[in-house]
Specification:
The chain has about 260 residues and is an all-alpha fold. Helices cover about 70% and strands about 0% of the residues. The chain folds into 2 domains: about 140 residues, no CATH class; about 110 residues, no CATH class. The two termini are about 25 Å apart.
Length: about 260
């Protein structure tokens, strides 16, 4: 039942996953980019509270806020609600938000814009699929869109394998960054033109791009260099390569399944 609900991106469970992914990802990545080296758990606490409260607000008020009409409405209310939540959180609940208030506010608004826009997009996309299936008297089939969470897992696993972190906190940072890179990789695997899937030229080019992105992403861990067994950028390149390899092969498999009905 839960897996079926998560396969439908506009469901309540999927909305909470969307919010958690957005808030956790950027509540981790942005502080790391600015040199944060403390434990991840205070950041995670902030992200979870913000995500859950925002999703409850946006889903309960989805239609009064007209978020079903387009991405612009979703982005508008997502950004506005997250700005309010960051301000309230900094004032009443999370002292960490007061350390760099403008950075957190900008980051929160960006996250909210994306979360709100995705909620609107997922609703409209699923609604079109459902309407088409209803007109044809069939059960809605969400195709490869139902596998939208897989790239997160591919990236997380690939990064943990490549970096082999020695501490739980660092492992969590690596997992989050890897999962986010997996989402980027999905652009070339799950949602790229299907003619790319069997191209002898595109395959190595995409893997090379993955290695480059992985090396770049490893800069987020530069403050933890002493904890790694090798150069972090080398392990990052390996992690990116593995992420793109797994997502590309999975994307090709899904495309072939659809082609054969």
């Amino acid at each position: 039942m839960m897996s079926s609900a998560l396969g439908r991106r506009s469901s309540w469970p999927s909305s909470f996953v969307t919010g958690l992914v957005g808030w956790i990802s950027f509540s981790i990545i942005v502080p790391l980019a600015f040199g944060y080296s403390g434990p991840p758990w205070p950041l995670v606490e902030i992200a979870i509270v913000m995500a859950v409260v925002q999703i409850l607000i946006l889903r309960l008020a989805f239609f009064p806020l007209r978020m079903g009409r387009g991405l612009a409405w979703g982005a508008l209310w997502g950004g506005a609600s997250s700005a309010l939540l960051i301000w309230l959180g900094g004032r009443f609940a999370f002292p960490l938000l007061r350390e760099r208030p403008y950075l957190w506010l900008a980051n929160g608004i960006y996250i909210g814009l994306a979360v709100g826009a995705f909620l609107s997009y997922f609703y409209r996309d699923d609604h079109e699929i459902q309407e088409k299936a209803r007109e044809q008297g069939q059960t809605p089939q969400y195709g490869r869109d139902a596998h939208w969470l897989e790239p997160f897992a591919f990236g997380a696993v690939a990064y943990l394998i490549a970096f082999l972190p020695r501490s739980l906190g660092l492992a969590f940072y690596i997992l989050v960054v890897g999962a986010f890179v997996g989402v980027i990789a999905a652009g070339s695997s799950h949602f790229s033109p299907d003619r790319w899937k069997d191209s002898l030229l595109m395959f190595p080019l995409i893997l090379a791009a993955g290695a480059g992105l992985g090396a770049a992403s490893s800069l987020l861990f530069r403050q933890f260099a002493a904890e790694f067994r090798a150069s972090y950028w080398v392990m990052g390149a390996i992690a990116g390569f593995l992420t793109y390899l797994m997502t590309f092969l999975r994307g090709r498999s899904l495309a072939r399944q659809e082609a054969h009905g």
